[in-house]
Amino acid sequence: MPSQEFDYRDRAEKPTTGFLGIDKDLDVAYDDDVLNLSVGVSSPEILKKVTPLVLEATQHCLKIAETDQAKSLFQYGKPEGPLKTRKLFAEYLTSAYGDKVYYEDLMLTTGASAGVHNLLSSVLDHDGYIFIDELIFMLTYGIINQFSGLKVVPVKLNDDGVDLKDLEQKILKTDYASKNKSKLFWGVYLTVPNYHNPTGITFSDQVCKGLIKIARKYDLGIICDDVYNLLHYDDKIPKRLYSYDSMDDVDYKGHVISNASLSKPISPGMRIGWYEVPPRVKSVLCSKGMLVSSGGFCNYTMTLLASMFETGIAQEHIKFVKATLGERMHVTVNVLQKNLPSSCSFINPGGGYFVWIRLPKGKSAKDLLRIAKNKYKVFYLCGEIFSHLTERDFSNCLRITIGYYSKDVLEDGVSKLCQAIQEFLSE
Ligand SMILES: Cc1ncc(COP(=O)(O)O)c(C=O)c1O
Description:
Layout lengths: L34 E2 L7 H4 L2 H18 L15 H15 L8 E4 L2 H12 E10 L4 H7 L6 E5 L1 E2 L2 E2 L1 H9 L12 E7 L13 H14 L2 E6 L29 E6 L11 E4 L2 H9 L1 H6 L4 H12 L2 H27 L5 E2 L7 E5 L6 H10 L3 E2 L1 E2 L14 E5 L5 H19 L2
Parallel strand pairs: 1-13, 3-4, 3-7, 7-8, 8-9
Antiparallel strand pairs: 2-10, 5-6, 9-10, 11-12, 12-15, 14-15
The structure holds pyridoxal-5'-phosphate.
């Protein structure tokens, strides 16, 4: 509701307030003098390679559309996206994941943000429960907040994934057994099992198996923001939680949803993502008004995506992105291993965008930021911005990202961050 002071006739655009709610004097999102290790976005150097990719794919795709009117990319499409794209993409994912991906399970989306919003509105009771990690990507939290009827329950996160005991105890505290369900799920657990944002952790095999047991026991849906799965920098390809929920099991119903995205491997601006969903979830999603009325999320881009993979240029591009980001992660981890004071620790993620650094307990990342930003010209996000509704204290933690700067700039910036930490801890 607008406040009483709201001027209804003032249409002038207002400057946005402090970056992500951080103190205004620390707002450096667009300050060229300061190295911004806070933003989880692709660098210009990587994004400029998207131009030839899109040009080639567009020419390829327009030629097909010209000769076959039935395949027009300018028409409404199907709720799940074009069959050809899903077949080509399933083939690619099968080889990238090293695990079978069925095109029948795929639905094309405009990325994980829209994907999660659509899921919450389609498969979860409007007065249902959403279990979230006590540390969560703050912008995802903003999406959850758009659903004011939901009850949000934070769950403890350990270095090997969600704390299964805590999750089960919190489920038992709800009225799940007597709740009148109006949608597919009375509750969902929303997480990032691989290269978690913000902590960089990947859920262990044991935690993944335990999660499937809990999901089946309580008929709890699990939404995985699989935004970083394709960005693994060592030979170990992380298994996605979706594949733990095996159809071969006698008690299989289909509880896991992979809500994935090409924003990081290709481009956030193009808005391309996908769901990998069990049959019962797919049938609900494909029948919902929004996707039926709009003919899928975006028939044009989804058709273009087929050409990107049919010509092989998308595969080549993702290889390049992985190699570039892998080098950046390697450099970052090396600098931290050499220069971070021994009283601190960090999680070496092996993939994704983020490195989570812990200062000694009682030392505030926000206090450190004043030295880091003002003297060493390095900016990052403090742990508190990711923690919601939890009693645990993350004020000694900080998140840096490897996505935006070249490896040389990162090497210098992370070294400066380590110097700032050394100075701060010796005060
Ligand atoms: C956990 C998580 N979910 C969602 C997103 C947004 O993804 P998309 O660009 O596909 O909407 C991000 C991107 O930073 C993310 O880290």
